Amino acid sequence: MAIELLKKVTVVSPKETNKRLVKAINNLGMMEIIDIKDSLENDVPFKNYEVPTEEEDNSLYKIDFILNLMNIFSPEQESFIKSLTPLPLVISRKEIDTVLSEYNLEDNYRYASELDEIYRRSERVINEIENEMKELGPIADIPFDLAEFFSPTRVGMAIGYVPEKNIIQLNPATEPWTEVAWEEVKPTVFPDNNQKYDTSNAAEKQTNERVRMVFAFLKDDAEGIRKALSDIGFEEIQLPKRRERIIDRMRELEGDLEKYRDQVAEVAEKVKLLVAGQRDGEGRRSLQILKAYWTNTRNRQVAAMKGVHGKWVYILSGYIRSKDTGIFVATINKEFPESMVTVEDPSPDEDLPVSISVPYLLKPIQLLTEMFGLPSYRGFDPTPFMQLNFYIFFGICFSDVGYGLMLIITGAYLTAKTKAYRGVNNLTRILLYGGISSVIFGALTGSWFGDLHKPEYLGQGNILHVLQQKCLVLDPMDKTILALIIALSLGVLNQFLGIILKMYGAIRNRDFIGAFSDGICWIVTLSGLLMIVGKIFGDIPPKIFNTGIWLFVGGIIGLILTQGRDLKGPMGKLAGGVVSLYGIMGSYGIVAFIGDTLSYCRLLALGLTTSIIAMAFNLMAGMIRDVPYVGMVLFIIVLLVGHLFNFLISALGAFVHSMRLIFVEFFGRFYEGGTRPFQPLSFDSSVCVMKKAGESGE
Questions:
Q1: pLDDT band per the 50, 70, 90 thresholds, residue 697
Q2: Three-class SS of residue 451?
Q3: Is the model's pLDDT at 685 over the cut of 90?
Q4: Tens-digit pLDDT profile for residues 355-400
Q5: How far apart are CA 310 and CA 340, in angstroms?
Q6: What does CATH list as the number for 143-244?
Q7: CA-based, 20 to 30 A from 462: which of 13, 50, 155, 645?
Q8: Residues 6 or more apart in contact with residue 66 via CB below 8 angstroms
């Protein structure tokens, strides 16, 4: 239950064994390879080993190309579990070998490229057709051939909309209208009654106090006529430069559109056959396995380039867990008897990755540590210290026996289904353990699907009411102030635990001054503050109050003298100590303590919210239960839907807010994450994981 010790391993082998050596290290999955060139002297006659990755990159490109095409026409169906988080495939070495021997990547890539070319070309033409139809739709009802409109050599024509109120200005007896002919162009009903084209824009403008008209005039007079048309609000329609009726062009486009859509549909069917594996292998699964294989092969090539070589030898270096050194050294010596393996402790200035070892029962909460950031190699793992408080917080926020049992069932089912997936399995076990905590606190606070246990819902003497009465310790609705005090007390204890852990970290690093000033001084000060506050809000013995004053004053003096220790000059140190009391600088602050403690009010608020919403749904169901004939059915439906909704919302809120109390109000006191994880070279990745001995996989 700690940060695992790492050893630095260096392997020296004959130059011609480099590829086999890296492959053997990859199969072991124990060593994180580092770039050894940085640790060598500049005058050492070694250089990095150059390994090409073109084959791997080319294969990965082809695989991604086919997978992307599959995802366009046949997106992968996700199960409920996979919708929570991406799950890798669990595969065996035998399955990898089978796919490598049977799946013809080159042939399938060529086939997919042909389909993609047809699809892209068809989509491009479809877009062009749809855009043209969109432009022609509003004017599809114009009755004349466009050839008649554009063919005159000396006469110009313009079609468009004129405000109805301005038509009176078209006086054939006045200039320039004496030189213009015009006519209203009314919407046309097609002979075949085909009105499926979008002429709504034309009709709307035609009826919105606008009239569609066509004007004819000599081209020599065009400039003056068009200016006059503009003066009366003429809005010209830009006709396409074609020599046919627009409706005929629309019908031609419609035929072309159907043709290219059929081509896309045909491509879709062929891609679905490709997904189903009717051409080769198991379709998408085979490609995902190939992707994992070539990704791992590329990672091996990149790892090999981190080593160096001379004329006869190849040198590789990296980190390994101390517990794995025996197996690692024995395997390398057995497979490469001509090589030499050295194991040593890393130097203090090395940037080491972190690997955390936690017992199985405590491992789920490690997920929260990884989300926040791993501790430094020479720090300590906070996972064991937040097991109890996280589940207590979650249980109080989600305190309901019924909802807790639902969460236990859900968590147990998901845990059984995700055994092969470490990260997801940890999350599901958090739900399982959180459900147990919710049942406990729900029983203590008397919430069983809210107040569904009451006789008016389930009748006198029902089992839920009997259990509720026997298990009830504190009803937060009746004794809200006491429940609030308990929530704040948990906040105080959690704050003090954070300060104690800060002291622990300082002592581990032999920083005894830091442990005293950032730990003991704050504990003394805050303890005294709590005693003083207790006198203000309650009746406590004078001796305790006086002790609190002395502790508070003594702690403040210690803080003023020590919190500015990193500043220069005596006045700077003193000023830094005074300012640190507020919390602007230094390790903590009185205001921060008060604010963080008050934040724990959310425990009571969320617990009450869960119960109150449940009670509201119970009340709604009870109101409609007596409806004739369908009352009992409606009663059950409202209960099921309402409580399922409350279960989901309240579970999410309980998890998020419990996590926030850990990350902000607890981790903020002592913890700094951000170290990179230990990542040994191995086959396992986010795409596929290798099935371990004895696993059945999914």
A1: very low
A2: strand
A3: no
A4: 988 888 888 988 888 888 888 888 888 888 889 999 999 999 999 9
A5: 15
A6: 3.30.70.2750
A7: 645
A8: 108, 109, 112, 274, 287
pLDDT at residue 195, as a whole number:
47
Distance in angstroms (rounded) separating the CA atoms of residues 140 and 249: 9
Those residues whose C-beta lies under 8 Å from the C-beta of residue 506, and which sit 6 or more positions away, are 512, 514, 515, 518, 519
Q: Name the CA radius of gyration of the chain, rounded.
A: 39
Name the maximum alpha-carbon separation found in the chain: 114
What is d(CA 444, CA 192) in angstroms, rounded to the nearest whole number? 78
- Cα of first residue to Cα of last residue in the chain, in angstroms, is 30
3-state secondary structure of 312: coil
What is the CATH number assigned to the segment(s) 2-50+305-353? 3.30.70.120
- Per-residue pLDDT at 693 exceeds 90: no
pLDDT digits (tens, 9 = 90+) for 105-152: 999 999 999 999 999 999 999 999 998 888 787 777 777 777 777 778
As a whole number of angstroms, the distance between CA 130 and CA 260 comes to 11
Residue 53 to residues 297, 301, 318, Cα–Cα distance (Å): 9, 7, 22
Q: How many CB atoms lie within 10 A of CB 265?
A: 12
- Quick: pLDDT tens for 43-78: 566 777 777 889 999 999 999 999 999 999 988 776
What would the two tokens of residue 84 be?
């929570």
DSSP3 helix / strand / coil % (the chain, rounded to 5): 60, 10, 30
Give the three-state DSSP class for 32: strand
What DSSP string runs through 383-440?
A: GGGGHHHHHHHHHHHT--HHHHHHHHHHHHHHHHHTTT-HHHHHHHHHHHHHHHHHHH
Kindly give the pairing relationship between strand 2-3 and strand 235-236: unpaired
Is residue 534 predicted with pLDDT exceeding 70?
yes
Cα(103)–Cα(111) distance, rounded to whole angstroms? 13
Q: What confidence tier does 500 reach under pLDDT thresholds 50, 70, 90?
A: very high
Note whether 2-50+305-353 and 143-244 share their fold: yes
